[in-house]
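Title: Comparing notes on inverse folding

I've been comparing how different people in this forum approach sequence design from structure. To keep things fair, I'm posting one structure and asking everyone to reply with a full sequence. Here's the target:
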């Protein structure tokens, strides 16, 4: 501190010393101090820091309306530090000023004052504004003009009177744009023959002058065209050809090349005289002609394709008329109704489809042929006989010993195909008892009685009538083959016929297979039982009864979960496909450490009460995990024979004898025998066995990864134990810390995973250099899950087969393979696969599927001071990742309450956005439509927290519910203007309009919130907010063309928003009343596609001064009251005639833009 004080003291001494040296020198030059305390000599070495005055270059100024001139101010002294000035007009309706530039607005007087920021010194200029000289007329340099060429032009000259008129602007128009065109310089151009008028109109006063323009192009030779180039007639008929000429009215002459075939008169009427061909020519006077080829035929040539026709009931046959000439048509009819139906078709209805309607009757079908004028040419006929159709066989199938209940709807369908009537009843001829028996009301071995050949079985049943729907066929247990059961039937019209039921009896087919490892729960798949039911009986499954397995091998449980269960399965209980107790809740739990194969018989019934039987084949393998190794990149790893011996003991219960290897891709690495730092005896062969206790020794095998390869290499192997039990497994070598699988997926527990063919194709390209052809899968244990083909929420086409090839580009498609994990399974499933590329080169790999219990997603938080909030895809991905499941793909939003705000897509400004977000569209993380293009815009005046729920879908197809919370805290002060203190209630709205480019301040940091908004400024702000796209033409007479709001008012006028008074004035500088602001606002909304209809004037009754609203404004004010834009003051007044302040304007416009 002492050092700083000393430094300052020395600085002061130095200044005083310099001053003492300069003062004597100044006196020596003759300078004497004045009374003002300043030396009369040049003291420029000491510039004054304060302003002591300001002057203008003129104290008066005369301007015409619409003109402008710049005043220049001089601050004294010129060396003053602060040269900043403020300009002010005493009457802004007469003249306005900006940085000294004075613009004349209307006749009158105003004082322009300039004030220094330092000291407040002023200077003034008195401005007198006078009206501009008006236009009194206009004339053209010529009143007539002739043009003779297409595109020829001439320029007309307009003279405005008087010559000193203020507005010399004119505009040009034509009355017929098909004859002439004119540009705004008066240049007239010929377009087409005719006469037109060019009119020039003054911008001021609308005075006009005209010029008549005649366009005469040289004429072209006449042309002619005929309405037809060919014509077919029959002898004695006629038709008139039509000729079109250019120019219209040209004389035409007609001639025939052969009047013995066809003659023509001078009106173009062609008459067929005799059979043959002729050419009719029409020639325009002075031009080239056109021709029509005429063919004349004999009407006796018209014949039907058949004179007799037999058609079965319900079937169709065809008739047609041959040699039908052009223009002729056929009318088809039958001499008796309801025997056949007729459906004409083809050109002129020359063809007819005949359908049998009533069996056992005949009818005559007649074809009446007429020419184009309605003259009858021929009436050929055909006799049609409708015969009865034969009843189609009713087919069904059943397993040996099973039952099938007859479907009465099939009998009724067969009946309608015979005579078209519904079925009444049938009687059966009984089948051989060695094949099966017909029973009435049969159910699981019990029945009312056997079917009798004398009993009638009715369609639909009835009181004291035996129902056809209760007849069942029960096949003998030892019979398989075909059974045909004949029946006689009578329809509802009393017609009788015979038919047959053809039943295929088959032995129970295909057992259901499940698999798992030792001590692993194996859940049953109800879909397998349902598929087997459909295969055997043709109908879906109802329920199953199980024969219980030996407890030494395992137990069937109902609702088993990690040692807990509801009960053991009972052999007497039925387990249902669609009801409780549910078949899908049955699991097999193998006895502790038991392994082997188990068969569980079962019986079942389908939904039509047909019974069948089958077996469940369960394979429980010994637990033998993959053999795992890891090695550094470019290292090597020797196989440990002890690992393979332990694997053999786990898999078979005895020691290892030998193994054989499926060789890995050379792109990943190589197996060597007797490898030593780059030297080796030979490469391992897939056809050799490598032994535990003899040559070639398994312990001498080494895997060497390919150079710089990192990842996981899967090497399948198969082997034999010392007891000759075979086994197989996989070696997995992780190189350089790579992933655990070649292709990996993860999902939430109980979530299916559909494989991506692109992943397999990319893997194939990495392995072989070419695209994928197909892959085959090693099926996983069913205890962990099942691979399905064409799976959809529990429904599927079939299970994936280990012997089936699944292709990239043809069926069966790899992309339709889905893995469905076992119920509540968590952990990792490894599925090995092999395949070929498009060049036939083989490769192999492993598929790693991980399933984990997921958590709730994280809540996404945003905050805002009432401006829009744009979402980020990364925030939603992070929230999804917190679940611990697969990554996010897309979200669907629930919409927030409109009282809080709205979600927009591609939001640019309040009136420029891509649309509103809906609750049906999925918005994607990486694709389109993107989450990152969604914005939340708070409603004006809203404060608080809004919570938006959404449904997310992750990469495994699992869905979850997440939440976005947005805190809206409107600022009580402006971020841009310092004079909003007493107007904190409007600060949020002012900043909103400022940030969207709708309003600006009156200075760098001032907004002038208590200033009154003028009509011109308000229209300018509406134009900025709603982006008026229409470019206006003329404007109101009191809106200067150079004014900053001229274009906005012109566009508003063109849109019908700004309408002005009857005197053609808009009064742009006048203050805007509240009711006029509402009218302009509503018109703007309606003209820009944001329509808001007039509301009932009753909305105004809630305000004490509501009745004072002008009649022309009542609908608009009521509409904006209804919408919540206008809310009145604290005293309950609207104050419709009061002026609108800039602060009030900001709040109202903010509310409108966030409706």
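Reply #1:
Here's my take.
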């Amino acid at each position: 501190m002492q050092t700083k004080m000393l430094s300052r003291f020395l600085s002061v001494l130095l200044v005083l010393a310099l001053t003492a040296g300069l003062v004597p020198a100044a006196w020596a030059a003759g300078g004497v101090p004045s009374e003002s305390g300043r030396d009369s000599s040049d003291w420029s070495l000491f510039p004054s820091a304060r302003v002591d005055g300001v002057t203008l270059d003129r104290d008066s100024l005369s301007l015409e309306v619409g003109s402008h001139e710049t005043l220049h101010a001089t601050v004294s002294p010129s060396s003053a530090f602060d040269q900043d000035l403020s300009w002010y007009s005493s009457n802004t309706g007469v003249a306005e000023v900006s940085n000294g530039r004075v613009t004349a607005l209307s006749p009158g007087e105003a004082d322009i004052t300039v004030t220094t920021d330092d000291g407040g010194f002023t200077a003034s200029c008195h401005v007198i504004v006078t009206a501009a000289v008006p236009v009194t007329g206009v004339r053209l340099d010529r009143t007539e003009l002739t043009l003779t060429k297409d595109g020829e032009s001439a320029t007309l000259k307009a003279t405005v009177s008087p010559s000193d008129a203020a507005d010399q602007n004119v505009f040009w128009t034509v009355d017929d744009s098909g004859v002439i065109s004119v540009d705004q310089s008066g240049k007239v151009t010929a377009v087409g023959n005719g006469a037109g008028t060019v009119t020039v109109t003054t911008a001021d006063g609308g005075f006009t002058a005209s010029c008549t323009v005649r366009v005469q192009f040289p004429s072209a030779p006449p042309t002619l065209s005929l309405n037809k180039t060919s014509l077919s007639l029959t002898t004695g008929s006629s038709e008139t050809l039509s000729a079109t000429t250019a120019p219209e009215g040209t004389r035409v002459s007609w001639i025939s090349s052969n009047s013995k075939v066809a003659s023509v008169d001078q009106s173009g009427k062609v008459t067929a005289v005799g059979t043959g061909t002729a050419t009719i020519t029409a020639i325009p006077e002075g031009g080239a002609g056109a021709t029509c080829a005429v063919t004349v035929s004999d009407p006796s040539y018209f014949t039907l394709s058949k004179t007799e026709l037999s058609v079965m009931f319900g079937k169709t046959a065809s008739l047609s008329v041959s040699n039908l000439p052009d223009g002729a048509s056929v009318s088809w009819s039958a001499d008796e109704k309801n025997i056949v139906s007729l459906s004409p078709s083809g050109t002129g209805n020359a063809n007819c489809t005949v359908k049998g309607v009533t069996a056992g009757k005949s009818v005559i079908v007649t074809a009446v042929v007429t020419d184009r004028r309605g003259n009858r040419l021929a009436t050929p006929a055909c006799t049609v006989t409708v015969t009865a159709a034969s009843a189609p066989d009713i087919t069904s199938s059943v397993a040996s010993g099973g039952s099938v209940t007859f479907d009465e709807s099939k009998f009724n369908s067969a009946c309608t195909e015979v005579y078209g009537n519904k079925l009444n009843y049938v009687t059966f001829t009984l089948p051989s008892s060695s094949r099966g028996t017909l029973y009435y009301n049969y159910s699981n071995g019990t029945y009312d009685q056997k079917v009798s050949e004398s009993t009638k079985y009715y369609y639909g049943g009835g009181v004291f009538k035996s129902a056809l729907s209760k007849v069942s066929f029960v096949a003998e247990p030892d019979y398989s083959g075909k059974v045909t059961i004949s029946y006689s039937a009578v329809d509802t019209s009393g017609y009788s016929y015979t038919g047959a039921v053809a039943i295929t009896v088959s032995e129970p087919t295909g057992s259901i297979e499940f698999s798992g490892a030792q001590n692993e729960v194996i859940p049953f798949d109800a879909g397998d039982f349902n598929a087997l039911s459909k295969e055997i009986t043709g109908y879906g499954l109802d329920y199953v009864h199980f024969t219980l397995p030996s407890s030494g091998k395992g137990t069937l449980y109902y609702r088993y979960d990690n040692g807990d269960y509801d009960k053991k399965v009972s052999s007497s209980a039925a387990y249902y496909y669609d009801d409780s107790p549910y078949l899908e809740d049955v699991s097999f739990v193998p006895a502790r450490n038991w392994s082997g194969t188990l068969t569980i018989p079962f019986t079942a019934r389908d939904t039509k009460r047909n019974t069948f039987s089958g077996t469940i084949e369960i394979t429980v393998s010994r637990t033998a995990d993959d053999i795992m190794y890891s090695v550094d990149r470019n290292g090597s790893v020797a196989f440990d024979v002890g690992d393979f011996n332990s694997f053999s003991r786990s898999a078979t219960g005895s020691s290892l004898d030998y193994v054989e290897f499926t060789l890995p891709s050379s792109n990943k690495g190589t197996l060597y025998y007797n490898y030593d730092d780059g030297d080796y005896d030979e490469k391992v062969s897939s056809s050799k066995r490598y032994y535990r206790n003899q040559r070639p020794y398994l312990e001498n095998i080494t895997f060497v990864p390919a150079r710089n390869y990192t990842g996981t290499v899967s090497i399948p192997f198969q082997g034999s134990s010392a007891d000759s039990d075979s086994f197989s497994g996989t070696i997995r070598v992780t190189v350089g810390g790579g992933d655990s699988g070649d292709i990996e997926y993860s999902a939430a527990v109980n979530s299916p995973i559909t494989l991506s063919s692109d992943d397999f194709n990319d893997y194939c390209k990495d392995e072989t250099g070419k695209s994928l052809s197909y892959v085959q899968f090693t099926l996983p244990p069913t205890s962990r899950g099942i691979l399905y083909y064409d799976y959809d929420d529990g429904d599927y086409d079939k299970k994936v087969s280990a012997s089936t090839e699944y292709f990239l580009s043809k069926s069966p498609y790899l992309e339709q393979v889905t893995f469905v994990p076992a119920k509540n399974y968590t952990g990792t499933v490894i599925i090995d696969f092999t395949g070929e590329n498009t060049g036939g080169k083989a490769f192999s790999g492993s598929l790693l599927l991980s399933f984990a219990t997921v958590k709730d997603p994280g809540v996404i938080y945003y905050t805002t001071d009432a401006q829009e909030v744009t979402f980020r895809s990364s925030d939603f991905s992070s929230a999804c990742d917190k679940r611990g499941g697969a990554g996010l793909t897309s979200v669907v939003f629930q919409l927030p309450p409109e009282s809080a705000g709205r979600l927009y897509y591609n939001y640019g400004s309040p009136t420029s956005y891509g649309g509103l977000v809906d609750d049906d569209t999925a918005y994607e993380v990486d694709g389109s439509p993107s989450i990152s293009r969604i914005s939340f815009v708070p409603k004006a005046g809203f404060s608080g927290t809004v919570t938006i729920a959404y449904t997310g879908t992750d990469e495994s197809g699992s869905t979850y519910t997440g939440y976005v919370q947005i805190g809206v805290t409107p600022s009580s002060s402006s971020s841009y203007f310092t004079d909003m203190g007493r107007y904190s209630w409007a600060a949020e709205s002012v900043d909103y309009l400022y940030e969207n480019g709708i309003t600006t301040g009156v200075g760098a940091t001032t907004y002038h919130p208590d200033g009154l908004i003028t009509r011109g400024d308000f229209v300018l702000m509406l134009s900025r907010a709603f982006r008026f796209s229409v470019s206006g033409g003329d404007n109101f007479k009191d809106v200067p063309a150079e004014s900053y709001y001229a274009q906005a008012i012109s566009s508003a006028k063109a849109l019908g928003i700004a309408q002005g008074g009857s005197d053609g004035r808009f009064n742009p500088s006048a203050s805007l009343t509240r009711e006029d602001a509402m009218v302009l606002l509503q018109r703007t909304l309606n003209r820009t596609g944001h329509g808001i209809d007039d509301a009932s004037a009753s909305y105004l009754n809630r305000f004490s001064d509501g009745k004072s609203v002008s009649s022309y404004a009542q609908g608009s004010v009521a509409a904006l009251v209804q919408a919540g834009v206008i809310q009145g003051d604290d005293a309950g007044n609207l104050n419709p005639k009061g002026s609108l302040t800039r602060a009030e304007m900001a709040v109202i416009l903010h509310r409108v833009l966030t409706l």
